[in-house]
Design a protein that fits this description.
2 copies of one chain form a homodimer. By secondary structure, chain A is an alpha/beta fold. Chain A has helices spanning about 5-30, 45-60, 75-85, 100-105, 105-125, 135-140, 150-155, 170-175, 190; strands spanning about 35-40, 65-70, 90-95, 130-135, 160-165, 180-185. In chain A, strands 3-2-4-5-1-6 form a 6-stranded parallel sheet, with helices on both faces. In chain A, helix 3 links the parallel strand 2 and strand 3 (about 90-95). The radius of gyration of chain A is 21 Å and the shape is globular. At the A-B interface, helix 1, strand 1, helix 2, helix 3 and helix 4 of A face helix 1, strand 1, helix 2, helix 3 and helix 4 of B.
Chain lengths: ~200, ~200
């Protein structure tokens, strides 16, 4: 015997009612405001892109936003042009020195990471920033270019929202974060099909 | 015996050289241009935000972009205000009728999904669009409001980039996609700490 359309619709309604009750309960219990530490990590695409999207959401509301790029080249012309539209609200610092496999000079990478961190600290301590994005900071931490304990301690007393991106987020950072999303690579055209990075999509 | 700073730097340089050679090879092999079908799925945060970020990257380059929101309320004022900056390049259609657990009327949800799909099809067939975002389409497919075969067939012959977002992407869509990222929920402040959605971050 197959179910009638009526049965399907009734069951759907019952399930939907339960789900709504659960959702309403969650929302009613969520009454705290907090300056969030958000981490986008994992090997999949979309980490910096999600950070960029959150920045633009904040900018849409007229909030001040800062970015420090710990690895040069991670963001490209598309982002920069879109951000330029809000240039009075955006501070954009490109502090890193290219991908580490391009520079091949550890001592210099460490010095550059430290320079970037000084810029990041200044933003984090300036409460006029609604949101500070520390792009690819995880890579810097992963190579021990900056001590993770120092970074976590500095992030603890913030009065703004912070997003950290990059694969291999270290455990102490995950532990102190409020929101962590792992972008998992399921399929990637660059790796599997030899498709090049294309304007207006990847840069 | 501990390693000298010199040893550490030398080993780092060797590893970095290998990594660079591998990366260069990948890039040199990636010479194809293709209109990509990109899927952001999973239960974690950042799916629609990454789509939104990609849109703004395309807009930064002056490309035309379309969005169909299959679930009303998924995008909010922050996005809309940011997009308004590029309003001559953006077509934004809010076609869905609220979250399904709010409406509790399956027949009406199906009709609304169909209306949204008609709008989406018109965009996909219009080659002046560089990128079309089908936001929360996965949810519609998951509830069988639209047959996945019909959607996959329609997407096959495109001449633009498409992003589909939403949890529970169906397997036939994943199979036909070029890039799939699963956003995995690791930590969420809303669920765990009772933190409310905050302006300029989540809406």
């Amino acid at each position: 015997m197959t179910d009638s359309e009526e049965d399907i619709n009734r069951r759907h309604k019952e399930k939907a009612e339960k789900r709504k009750a659960f959702q309403d309960k969650l929302v009613s219990q969520a009454d705290k405001k907090k300056h969030l530490l958000m981490v986008y990590t994992g090997t999949g695409k979309g980490k910096s892109t999600a950070a960029f999207g959150t920045m633009l959401r904040a900018l849409g509301h007229g909030h001040k936003v800062g970015v420090v790029q710990f690895i040069k080249g991670a963001w490209s012309t598309g982002e920069q042009k879109a951000l330029a539209t809000f240039d009075n609200l955006v501070t954009y610092e490109v502090a890193g020195e290219g991908f580490t496999w391009d520079t091949q000079d550890r001592a210099r990478d460490i010095a550059k990471a430290r320079e970037a961190w000084v810029l990041a600290l200044a933003m984090i301590r300036d409460t006029s920033y609604h949101l500070v994005v520390l792009d690819e900071l995880n890579i810097v931490l992963r190579y021990d270019y900056l001590p993770v304990e120092e970074v976590v301690a500095a992030l603890a007393g913030r009065a703004n929202h912070v997003i950290v991106t990059g694969r291999n987020a270290p455990q102490p950072l995950i532990d102190s974060a409020d929101l962590v999303t792992e972008m998992k690579l399921v399929k990637h055209p660059f790796r599997e099909q030899g498709v090049m990075a294309q304007e207006g999509i990847e840069f």
